[in-house]
Amino acid sequence: MKKNIFKIFRFLSKFFYKKKYIEEYKLNEFYNILKLAIFQKILGFNRHVPWPVHRTTTVNMPENISLDSRSPGISKYCHIDGRNGISFGKNIWVGPSVKIISMNHDVNNYSKYIKNKSIIIGDNCWIGAGAIILPGVSLGDHIIVAAGSVVTKSFEDKDQIIGGNPAKFIKKLSNYSANDEEA
Fold it and tell me: What pTM was estimated for this model as a whole?
């Protein structure tokens, strides 16, 4: 029975999103994906974004954002500004109220923007609730950004926890192991 329901949800979700945006979700997540699709694709909240995002999330210039998997912005109240480019790796988890801002104002003329390097977020990263990632930041693979952190510089080494304002190294992690078994 559970397998049939999963097939039905997967079939229905194909009407709203490309397969690459939904292929790694499990059955219990598909109900939420379809709920998001109703708000996003039918009612028009964030209709311009091709991947699933929550209706309270804002995404600027999604065409400058590349995704390898999962859907940043699926949590509530996120702000993802892709004007200067953002690259998300595989298996990225973004908590609620996260701000990822790729472009900043010129300090001598607020109506102008400064071009900077794109934000790069490596594979298997988890960005905790309320974290802010600022322009030009690059995060390596398997980085956990602690809740409420402000990331102002790059952390390109893998397997670490960073946190604080401004964010700094907190702890080294063991290698990421993808275990598909649910806890």
Answer: 0.82
